[in-house]
Each structure stands twice: as C-alpha cells, then as structure tokens.
C-alpha cells in the first residue's frame, strides 16, 4: 500500500481563541484557518467561494480586522481573537447589522452574507458614521452576486443609525 | 432613503395584509447568523470526500485509463470510470448526450473522466496524481465559424450534419411583403460573447446510500445538492443509477445562488451517489471555483444577423433574424436556448411579419446552457441596439421610435404567443422621465451646435442609452411534455394552529420560500412567520419543476393559493356554524376569522382549525397549477416562448466614456419593471437591482475567453465580477398593474430586468462617443480601437468576431411557415381576449 501521509502531515495541537471561547484543536499545519474553522471546529457559517482570496466569502475578524480565512494559517493567529459570523450575535442578541441585513433585504442567497457582515462590523467599529463611499471602499473585497449591493449599503447605513441610537426604522 | 419607487394601479383589489408589504424573508435570520446550511456545510458521520479527474484536452480519444495505483493508495475507497456508469443522460429528453464519466472521448477541457472517493481531501490530492490516462489528441474547434468550417471534425454524435446540433427555421406572416412595404431596411451583425453565472457558492453535494438487503433495490439513496432543479436531478439519478425514483430522495438545502448555473443534472451529483453506493458511506463532492467555470452551462456566445424593414414614420414592417449559437461540447438546455434566441422578438414590439433562423453548433468548450434571461438576453441586446440604429437613421428619438411600436396588452403575436397584461409603455415613460432623457438630448443638441465649448471639454464624453425588454413568467410547456401539474403545494393544519406548507419549489436566494409563506398567510389571514415551510425535497414535497424560466412565483404561488383556499373553505364552514354567521360574510385576517358586518364577532385561527378538524377530520389540502392551453401557435416548435404572462422592463443607462483610455463608467441605471403586483416589494427590488448589476457586468467586464483550448481565466481574480466600487447607482421603479392570472396579480422579476441593461449601456456608449462596438462585453481595448480606427461618428471595419458568418445554403432544416389566422380557436380562453374568468380559465388549477 502507498501511504499519502508524509511526516509533515501529522496533526499539531494548537489553541485558538474563537468567538470568546478558548479552543484546543488538532490541525494539519498546512490547512487554512477556513478549513480548520469549517471542518475541524464545525463553524460552517464561514463560507468559501474560491479558496484563493478572491471573493471575500471566508472573511473573519482577526483582532477586529477583516481577514480572509482561506489565506490565513491557524498557527499565525494563535495569539489573536478570532470572530466568525457565529460570534457576531452576542448572548442571543443580534448585531444591528444582522437585523438591518434581514429587514432590508440585503441577504438574498445569503452565501456571501457572513463575509459582508464581518467586513461591515469592522467598518462600523472604526467609523460609526461612514459615508456611502466609505462603505463601498470597506466592502470592496467582498463579492455579492445577488443584490447589486444597493440593499447592502442601505443596511449598513441603517445599522450605523441604529448603533448611534438614532432612527430605528 | 431607499431608491425603489412604486407606480400602482388604483383601486384594483381589497387591501392586503401581507401581499405588497416590505418584510424580511422567512429565511433572512438563518442567513444573517450563519445558521443556514448549504450543501457543503453538511457533514455526516463516516463521510468520504470525492473528486472528479477532468480532461486536460479540449478534444481527445481516451486510449486507456489506469486507476490501479490510485486504488492502492491508503485511504482511497473507490475509483470509478465511464464504464461503471454507461447510461447517457441530459436535462432535455431530446439531448441525452452526456455520460457521468467520459467514455471513449473527451470533448472539452474539464470533461470528467474518473471519480475517486477517499477519507479526506489530502488523500484525494495524492490519488489524482496516480491516475494514468492516455489520450490521443484530436483537433479542437473553438468557435462558431470553426465548427461550421470543419464538419469533418465531429465533436458530438448528436449532430446530424457536421457540428450542427440544432437548426430551426420559421416564417410568420408575409415577410417578403413586409420588406417590400418598408421605406427603409437595415441589416446588422452582432456578437455576444457569453459568460458564467458565477454564483458565490460553488456546486456541492453529499450523497448517502442506506443499504437494505430486504429491499430488492438494495437500499435508498439521499442526495443533498446545491441545485435549482431537484426534480430533474431526481429523474436523471434514477436513469443513470438504474434505480427507481421511489428509492431516491433529492434535497436542495439552502442554495448559494444559481442564475441558471445549477439547473442541469451534473456528473458530480451522479458520481457522488455511485461512490456512496459502492462504499456504503456518505460521499461529498465540492467543486472548486475553476470547476464551476468548467462545468459552466453559462450564457451561449451568439452571433446574430438582423434585417428590419420600417416605414418612414418608424412603423416596423418585417424582421428577419438569424442566430448562431456556440453551444460548447454538449446539449444541456441548448435546443431550448436556440428557440429562445428567436421566440420572444415579437413580444416587445409589434411585428407584422417575422422570419427566424437559428442554429446551435457544438464546439470543444464547456457546455453552455441557461443563464438569467435564457437565450433571450443576446437577441435582446442585438435587437435593441439595432432598433437604436434605425431610430437614428430615421432621425426619430429612440424613445419615440420604441413607443410607436410597442406590443399591446391582450393581443396575440405574429408567432402565436398570447399577450395578457403589459405595462411596457408605462415602464418606458417612467425611465425616460426619471432619467431626464429629453432634457439630456436637448442639452446635447445645443452643446453640439456650440462648438467653442467642445474645445474646452475633458476627455470624458457622456451619453444616455435606452432599451426595452420582456420575459416569460414561466415556460408554458414543461421539459417533459405531459399533462401533469407544473407546480403543486400541500398544506397541513395542526390543531394547535400550526400551518405547514410543502412545495418542491427551490429557493436559490430569490425568495421563493418566502413567496409561499406570504401567499398562504394572506389567504388564511395569519402571519407568514407563523408558517413552517418544507421545500425542495422530493420525498416530502409535491413536485415543482424547479427554479428556472422565472416560473416559481407565478406557478407555485397559484398552486399555494389553490391549496389555501380549500382549507379556508373548511375553516369558514366550521366558523360559520360556530359563530352563527353566513359563510359569505366571513373574512380571515390577523389571526382571526370574523364577520365583516360585525368585526367584533371573531374566532381565533387556532379555534377555527379545531372546529374544522372536528367536523372534517385531518386538515390537509393540495393545490396545483399548469399553464392554460391555447397560449401558443400550433406549429412544431411552438412550445418554446409561450408563458401564462410576460413581464416587461425598460432601462436607461448613463455612461461616461474616457476617449483617452476607452474606459466606460456607467454612472447610473434607471430600471422600470412591470411586475404586475409586488408580492414583497423589497424582494422584487432586490431582484431588479441584482439583474441590473449582473447585466452591467455582462455589458462591460465579464469575459468568457479561451486560449489553446482552455478557459483563459477560470478564477474570480481574472474573471471580473463587479465589486462595490464598480457597480453603478441603480434606481428601481416597480410598475404594478396586476395580471389577471398571476398570484394576487404578480409576475416574474428574477430574469426580465437583466435584459434591457446590456443594450441600454451599449446605446449609451454610442450616445457618448458616436461609435458602435456591436459586441459584448464592451471592454476598453475595443472602445479604444474603435475610436482610433473610426474617428468621429464613423463605424469601423468588423473585428474578427464580427465577420459575417456564411449561412449554410440552403438552411439545414425545413422552413416552417405559419400564419396566426390558421390557428384553430381555443374555446374559453387563450385567444388574446381579456377574460374575466381569471383563475377559472387556467387548466389544472385544482
């Protein structure tokens, strides 16, 4: 029998901090964070559309900064706080962006949505009142094939207002 | 805040509680929280991973396949080749030309040859390297003209003559007389390059075989797949696996976008099923992005020639249209696509005489199929640019020219299609008014007179372009012609007040599951959120043919109304007894059934369900829908084009062209869509905006190009999808004049709005720089070349893709001549008369 398992492919035990939880996980060192989140940790809310850093569907937050999990190795982010879509909701309460994306039709097939939400959340964290142009700039790394983006901009604007405690409609 | 505007007919219906109100989709919260489960998210115990080994050659004979070394690799559990699945299949009964794995020959780079199942993807990587396939490379034909020029190189045996897969030829009305009557005749060639759907979710499936030795079939198979058409996957799996449909269950979980790209039964679905059957373990196959480009089924490249006659006042007298489709290596939906390139020309403008010749060629490229606008997008582009040219030639405002020729509601076209509701005129007026079309033209004319100004101008030239379009609300005929319903819905009421709706309709993001909930909620007077929805599961849900041809809202919506009304009748009968009120006076709204004369007399929905269950027994009802008869002509081939209704769309595009760089920036799109009645205006606007975005990408940047037989750019980095920074501002106008037969008056919105966008942009580019490109996509290099070669206002010599295709003479199929007067009248409906019979006029609504 031929053996595909070369020595380099032995699993390694590492610690990741995901959505506020400390997780010990045995990973193959060449597997990406995307693969580890989805396949080893069951966090399937993080999506993939290319595995080459082109579509933004696999966006997660690493210490609050949107990163492509398909281009990140888990060993690089052992010291970091990782947030996936499953962690955007806190104690059963949705992030305002999750509410407005649902209410305003910003998610159609929903497949790119986790990536947009995390990019959007990072934007609103650093810029509470972004202009339409700033929203476009911040979301330019996420591809959506359904919406034409209009409803996504409107949802980000509405969430910004909601966070500011302004108009809740 | 939001850009969508609504233009509504007045006093046409009682106030609805649910219909017409913006609200979240029923699955919105599962999607924004990451809970939604797509096919690749499904992980089963002991699951294996599968992969297909694909051909590296565009055309080759398979001399030998050696899988022994792969089978010896630890962790590889099964390897199969073509001879293990020797039954041909295909989506159309008339195009059964695919094998799950190639036998004898491969026909495009990406044709699947071997399938492997292993413990994990890393082992698959190794196993693929150990598969040895010996090929004898054959000459490859990579374009329409090459396929016509080399009939000796036979790509696919389905072609009777050379590489001609299908040829059609029709004449409706007196075409020669029409041209003789014309004051002006124009001819043009156009080329539409074609493109991929590029849904963000790559195709994926999980197959699970559960053996049962006491069953003569040996067990049951379940397949979860990112498909738009579980019903047809069900059919084809049964055929290829040689298992009865009764033992196969196909489920479409959440689907991450389709746009037509997930409407064929695919090799990876069949192979996953077979690998699961052989290993007795679940098998998952997830395609890579490159594979999505290779399995394709995208928009056909089409070369088109149009000749149109007009009177001096702009009245159309005759049109002759020819299309040559580059079909790729297999049939897919291509025969239907071929018909669609010709069938709907008559549905937008009144054509008194029309000749259509279409031809699909096999080439050594990934098979083409249906993409949003299926087969109508390419001719719509060509016809709308051609119309624009004629308007300019005649010195008529392109808006007035179109307005003059509009099809009228409740008429019949020259090729026999029944037209019912049509708000095309209103759509045209809306986009022209909101875009400032007339003012822009006036300003441009005065600027043109004002020569000293033009010296100081920048390199940016602006223009406005206009286009109109129409689309079907569901195909009038099913893929397999039979008397069965196209869509069916079952509803079960629980004595606790629970409502469960079962329907095969497949939500690919367009919101079909939500539409079912809204329709049933409106009928039963409850909240949509209260309803449980089971969809797209061949073991649980009655058949809906699938999410294609923009059919689901119209057909499943009507089936849902029919089912809900049966239950409502039972609830009202029981409530009437309980409340001592005549049935005719009862209404259902906001969770209660009440007396309309005395709204204080109420019975809660749950109580009414209990009273009805006590009286009638278990409360389950079914409704189904099939399109009416007599909505098309009675000639062979008349089955493609008819629809129970047509939607209409218009678009104005504002483009800025940089004459130094050739770059085109679309600054704004105004899009008006005749949707009949918006079931949920938020979702309709979302479809319109999505269509506008996709049309924009097709017009300017999406390229389906090949080099040395290979797809040149099969990745999302090189294949350009419009980002937030590219996509123009979109102003959506929903025109709501209810259709008599649509569910609550609703019509489609998923596909139609894409069609006018591409020609509107092309016409805007011309308006800006005075030069026509006549080819899609309009990339900066083409614009620059045209500017340099053509100078001011002059056309340029044809590019290679626009060299006239020599039409085979005679056209390789018999001409069918048909006159609408020859058609036998259909009693009761379908003769283009505005029927008050409404629902009753439909066949099979029960």
State the distance separating the first and last CA atoms of chain A.
65 Å
Classification by helices and strands of chain B: alpha+beta
Distance from N terminus to C terminus of chain B (CA atoms, Å) equals: 43 Å
Cα Rg of chain B: 27 Å
Structural class of chain A: alpha+beta
State the order of secondary-structure elements of chain A, H for helix, E for strand: EEHEEEHHHH
Q: What radius of gyration of chain A results from the CA coordinates?
A: 17 Å
Q: Largest interface, per-chain counts?
A: A-B, 67 and 70 residues
Continuous helix count of chain A: 5
Q: How large is the count of helical segments of chain B?
A: 21
Mean pLDDT of chain A: 94
Describe this protein with a few key phrases.
heterodimer; A: alpha+beta; Ubiquitin-like (UB roll); DNA polymerase, domain 1; B: 846 residues; alpha+beta; Aldehyde Oxidoreductase, domain 3; Aldehyde Oxidoreductase, domain 4; seven-stranded mixed beta sheet; 21 helices; 33 strands; 28% helix
Q: Can you tell me about this structure?
A:
- The complex is a heterodimer of chains A (169) and B (846).
- With 169 residues, chain A is of the alpha+beta class.
- Chain A has 2 domains: 11-87, Roll (Ubiquitin-like (UB roll)); 96-163, [2Fe-2S]-binding domain (DNA polymerase, domain 1, Orthogonal Bundle), CATH 1.10.150.120.
- Chain A has 5 helices and 5 strands, in the order E-E-H-E-E-E-H-H-H-H.
- Chain A has helices at residues 33-40, 96-103, 113-126, 132-138, 150-163; strands spanning 12-18, 21-27, 59-62, 65-68, 81-83.
- In chain A, strands 2-1-5-3-4 form a 5-stranded mixed sheet, sandwiched between helices.
- In chain A, helix 2 (96-103) packs across helix 5.
- The model of chain A has no long low-confidence stretch (mean pLDDT 94).
- With 846 residues, chain B is an alpha+beta fold.
- Among the domains of chain B are: 39-138 and 202-255 and 262-295, Aldehyde oxidase/xanthine dehydrogenase, a/b hammerhead (Aldehyde Oxidoreductase, domain 3, Alpha-Beta Complex); 484-625, Aldehyde Oxidoreductase, domain 4 (2-Layer Sandwich).
- Helix content of chain B is 28%, strand content 24%.
- Chain B is built from 21 helices and 33 strands.
- In chain B, the strands form 8 sheets. A 7-stranded mixed sheet of chain B has the order 4-6-2-13-10-11-12, sandwiched between helices. In chain B, strands 32-9-14-15-16-8-33 form a 7-stranded mixed sheet, sandwiched between helices.
- In chain B, a hairpin with a 7-residue loop joins strand 10 (204-211) and strand 11 (219-225).
- In chain B, helix 6 packs across helix 7 (267-279).
- The radius of gyration of chain B is 27 Å and the shape is globular.
- Mean pLDDT of chain B is 94; it is low at 792-796 and 827-842.
- The interface between A and B is large, with 67 and 70 residues.
